[in-house]
Each structure stands twice: as structure tokens, then as C-alpha cells.
């Protein structure tokens, strides 16, 4: 390569490396003024920061969701005879889950215990804890 010996190439490499390190160090040490930020940009940054904080708070609150959304209805709902419209009143039960409960009930017969409702796809232990105070079998 260009008639350089191995020793000369090594020395050249070391010189270039030190040069680049020196330039980098000089740039790092140079004091530069911060760019001016107008009010519009500052407002945008503040909005983003506030929205991120709100997401963080919603995540923390969602961990306590089971206790927060467990509410007692005015009347208990019979899960063996209630139509979809009544099942939707249960906390955490939407139209899709209500239809699954009715379909499970028509395919397998009535529920024998309140825990049998956990056999319906989409109803696990957490969902059961939300609705157990509001359901009856007869």
C-alpha cells in the first residue's frame, strides 16, 4: 500500500487517531450559546411533557382498577336468564362478553355456581372479582 512499511502505517494511524481525538476534545470544550427557543416551541414542549406525565399517572391508576371499578348495582343480575342488555350493566362486561355469556349458556346449559362464569372466554379472575357482587344464579 503506497510503499509504506508496517511501522510507518502504524505511526500514521496513531497520528490520525490523536488528531481526531484532539479535534473532538476541542469541540467538546468549546462553549456555545444555547439556541433561542420561542414561546410557541416552549408551549409545544410543555404540552408533550404534560401529556407524558398524564400517561404515567393513568398507568399507575390502572393497576388499582379492579378495586376502583368494583361497584354495586341497584339489583343483582341473574346470569342464567339475563339478556345481553342486562349483562352489559355489569362492570367490565361489554356487548361482546355479554353475547359470549348468552351463547355459553345456550350451548352448555345454566351456570351451577357463580364461578362457572369464568369458563366463558374473556372472563378471568379479575373480571370475576369485578362482577361477583352483582350476579346471582336464580
Protein model, in words:
It is built from six helices and two strands. The protein has 138 residues and is an all-alpha fold. The protein has a domain at 71-136: DNA polymerase, domain 1. It has a two-stranded parallel sheet. The protein is elongated, with a radius of gyration of 33 Å. The model has no long low-confidence stretch (mean pLDDT 84).
Give a concise summary:
This protein is mostly helical. The chain has helices at 6-29, 39-62, 65-69, 84-87, 95-108, 125-131, and strands at residues 77-78, 135-136. It is elongated.
Characteristic key phrases:
single chain, two-stranded parallel sheet, mainly alpha, DNA polymerase, domain 1, 138 residues, 57% helix, 6 helices
Note the main sheet.
2 strands, parallel
- The order of strands across the largest sheet is 1-2
Work out the helicity level.
55-70%
- Report the sheet-strand fraction: under 5%
Instruction: Output the CATH homologous superfamily of the domain at 71-136.
Output: Photosystem II 12 kDa extrinsic protein
Order of helices and strands: HHHEHHHE
DSSP E strands, number: 2
Radius of gyration: 33 Å
Shape: elongated
**Topology-level CATH name of the domain at 71-136:** DNA polymerase, domain 1
Q: Extract low-pLDDT stretches.
A: none
The span between the termini is 93 Å
| Derived structural class | mainly alpha
- Main CATH class of the domain at 71-136: Mainly Alpha
Count of helix runs = 6
Please name the CATH architecture of the domain at 71-136: Orthogonal Bundle
Mean pLDDT: 84
